[in-house]
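Troubleshooting log. The previous structure file for this entry was overwritten by mistake, so regenerating from the original sequence record. Sequence copied from the archived sheet and checked twice against the printout by T.R.
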Amino acid sequence: MQCVKCGAKAVYYSVYSGHSFCAKCFMKSVEQRVRATINRYKLFDPEDRIVIAISGGKDSQVLATIIAKVEKDFPGATLSALIVDEGVPGYRDFGLRRSKELCDELGIELTTTSFKELFGYSLPEIVSIAEQKGVSLGACTFCGILRRRAINVKAKELGATKVATGHNLDDEAQTALMNLLRGDVVRLLRLGPKPVEEFPGFVPRVKPLRYIPEKETTLYAYFKGYPLYEVECPYVRESMRDEIRSILNEIEGRHPGTKYAIVRAADRLSAMGASLKVRVGSCKYCGEPTSRDVCRACELLEVLGVTS
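Regenerated output below.
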């Protein structure tokens, strides 16, 4: 096969576009689609102070690389990166090291925070406390909720106007299906491509990789020669998301385009629910924005008998 762009030997065939690409043109294609997403949905403003939520994984490495390229055209914007250390031994160490290396290469200042710093306990310690107290919640529930809190708190300290996350097409399709299965209509209606509307105390999140399949972010990172995690998080197999991931991958293998279809459906639902008004106030304990009296993070910490 030949590259549809330059005629060189192709190394990748996209079942979605029907085009073959060489490594160089493939990476350009990914970058162009990310730029198109940013432009179409106005993810950034020229004077934004952007904080990239980085983990050292393939998606966040690709995100940081492409955003650094894009923002060179906007000298009024500033870039920095933030990594959250959950304290999982033998896992996050690689991400901390790799994030520092990449940020140094890209000239991006990196800030590191941790569950221990913000909440007084590492994730394994939180899981242990939950088990001792008979709390029937998995590690991924604690991790997801507390990571979101950590990112928002530190992003505000950094003066961010936007937080960019590395969620790809697969992630978004999984989230849409999980919200549907849980009956969470509000979250499903708000799972759209545009920045979440601003609430007092909340830094809007944007997802520039939203329409890039996971296999393409992986291939981009491979062609760039980026080192990747060699071990997975010890808690990942406990999560509902992992089950949904397997189901969607199996369906996608038989019916290519399923993930795109799910995300596009979520986009349409989001557009229909754009006028949905959610009452947002402040958590009575931590002051973070929430639609309830007590935010989910404080609720979990309260159940465990610990304070943030």
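The mean pLDDT is 93. Archived copy saved in two places this time.
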